[in-house]
Amino acid sequence: MNSSMLSEQSQLPIAFTLERPEVSVVVPIYNEVESIPPLLEAIATTLQQHNLTYEIICVDDGSKDGSSELLRRLAHERVDLRAVLLRRNYGQTAAMAAGFNHAEGQVIVTLDGDLQNDPADIPLLLAKLNEGYDLVSGWRKERQDARLTRLLPSRIANWLIVKVTEVDIHDYGCSLKAYRSEVVRDMNLYGELHRFLPVLAFIEGARIAELPVRHHPRRFGRSKYGLGRTFRVLMDLFTIFFMKKFLTRPMHGFGLFGLVSMLVGFGIGIYLTFLKLGLGQAIGDRPLLILAVVLFLTGVNLFSFGLLAELSMRTYHESQNRPIYRVREVVSSRMEPARMESTGMEPKRGALLPPSD
Ligand code: UDP
Ligand code: MG
Q1: Calpha distance 324→67 (Å, rounded)
Q2: Ligand 1 neighbourhood includes 113 CB (under 6 angstroms)
Q3: Residue 12 confidence (pLDDT)
């Protein structure tokens, strides 16, 4: 990128206003040095053409190829770019979480730093969001990746995720997504949960839509993932399933199974006691005895596990002041309190203001 282009951009009426930008574009970067300049150019061009106020937040996830240095330099030159440099490589989820924490926009758009997503799709996502959704997820209908090692596992994973979570979108792996900022703030990310963001958002009550988007083959560098990712996605799916179903009522899951198992075990135990004491039969070598003991102990375990889960669930919600509900809107003719609440973030009022850095 030449310097005249840069100075041209610094004069544009973007960023540095005290108001929140309309759009924050969050890009995780891990060893993508060649892609960064054309990517920033493409994002800036599209958003400026649509007269949007925006900021680009590039999170460098401990790159070793010079991406960090390039981002540091560019962030000094461009007013529309903020570089968040992580100390080491934490993984894409953590990089995105860092980006979310620094984003001030009313809408947050995420995309990959490798030019596989097309920034020209951003306005389409925003338009869809404006139809009244909280999250719009891209769908790489014609995905440009290796068929056997990437597309096939991804097909299976997506099918499974939809079956398990019942949040029906086609392409969980697509990074190009747009979110209303309130939705992002409500979600906590761990492990590799970024691909489950739509499910997490759904748990938080978000309205979700999807939109076919373009996808390009990788031009520079290499993919950071292989087949091993499929396994980790499956493990995360268990967590998500549990969260979606029982987050606020773990005892309903564990308690029911525990109780049933305990009762059946107890019943068999009574029957065996009757055989032994009432009829004088020997029961020591009966498999049924083992079954009774296993069922009873499993039941006790599950039950107490449910109680512990209840406790930690309470800690989870109460320590963060997280209510078990999300308000979309409060309608009232009394102005002040209603205005605060209509953001849906009433317990975290401080979060309404952009961070002061
Ligand atoms: N990425 C990251 N940290 C990592 C791995 C990946 O920030 O540990 C970024 C990477 O730079 C890219 C995005 O996450 O912008 C998606 O990675 P990649 O393109 O390798 O995934 P694929 O498109 O092959 O699924
Ligand atoms: Mg990619």
Answers
A1: 41
A2: yes
A3: 46
Please say whether the beta carbons of 244 and 199 come within 8 A.
yes
Q: Is 172 in the pocket of ligand 1 (CB under 6 A)?
A: no
* pLDDT at 97 (0 to 100): 95
**Residue 184 CA to ligand 2 centre (angstroms):** 22
Highest average pLDDT, of 93-97, 185-189, 234-238, comes from 93-97
The residue whose CA is least distant from atom 13 of ligand 1 is 112
Order of all β-strands in the sheet with 81-85: 81-85, 54-60, 23-29, 107-110, 177-180, 135-140, 208-213
Which has the minimum average pLDDT: 58-62, 194-198, 316-320? 316-320
Ligand found nearest the CA of 173:
1
Each domain of the chain, given as residue ranges in start order, spans 3-245+325-339, 250-312
Sheet strands (E) in 128-207: 135-140, 177-180
**30 CA to middle of ligand 1, Å?**
6
What CATH code is assigned to 3-245+325-339? 3.90.550.10
CA dist 344 and 341 (Å) reads: 6
Residue 223 in contact with ligand 1 by CB distance below 6 A: yes
Contact 33, 61 (CB under 8 A): no
For the stretch 68-83, pLDDT in tens is: 999 999 999 999 999 9
Ligand 1 pocket test: pick from 71, 112, 152, 223 the residue with the most ligand atoms within 8 Å of its Cβ: 112
pLDDT digits (tens, 9 = 90+) for 207-225: 999 999 999 999 999 998 8
Mean per-residue pLDDT for 269-294?
A: 95
Separation of 352 CA from ligand 1 center, angstroms?
30
Q: Looking at residues 292-298, what average pLDDT do you find? A: 97
Instruction: For residues 210 and 23, give the distance between their C-alpha atoms in angstroms, rounded to a whole number.
Output: 19
Q: Is 344 in the pocket of ligand 1 (CB under 6 A)?
A: no
Per-residue pLDDT at 125: 97
Q: How far is the CA of 218 from the centre of ligand 2 (A)?
A: 6
Tokens linked to 350? 């401080």
